Amino acid sequence: MGAEPSSAASPLQRLRAFAEPEGPAPLDAVLAFYDELGPVEVDEMLGDWDGGLIETGHPGESRLDRLRWAGKAFRAVDDIDPMICLDDQDERYVSDVMGGAHLERAEFRRVSTATMKYDSHPVSDHFRRVSDDLVLGVMDREGEDQPLIFFLSRRGARG
Q1: d(Cα 47, Cα 75) in Å, to the nearest integer?
Q2: Sign of the four-CA dihedral 35, 106, 132, 140
Q3: pTM, to two decimals
Q4: Cβ(55)–Cβ(24) under 8 Å?
Q5: C-alpha span between 42 and 59 (Å, rounded)
Q6: What tens digit of pLDDT does each residue of 29-63 get?
């Protein structure tokens, strides 16, 4: 079972503890942490981001691992590459497996925050702030009982 960090730890320390590859993190604990985090403004998501998963046992985790998902690129609110992956030479490329997406503000878990909605799928990624250059995301797919949890760190940011 993955680590469940102390609530006295900083948000960054708590995220790191959930992200450690010791096995699945308890979904309820990760969502409680997510609920404590503040919202993100839509324009704050613009830029290139590296991504990582918080393993909770969601079936999509293994699919993203096989694709070598590496992050997202937000050029404008309506010009997004949601699936940046790594090729065999560890170079980033745009995968079209999920198509395009757009950003808007939406309410999720009682907080209005920046949300990326896929253009061709009933999927939304809702973001909460860990720091200025680090966000925690919850991918909510219509019809699924469990969300997929991930984080994004701004490329080129310090720390």
Answers
A1: 6
A2: positive
A3: 0.91
A4: yes
A5: 28
A6: 999 999 999 999 999 999 999 999 999 999 999 99
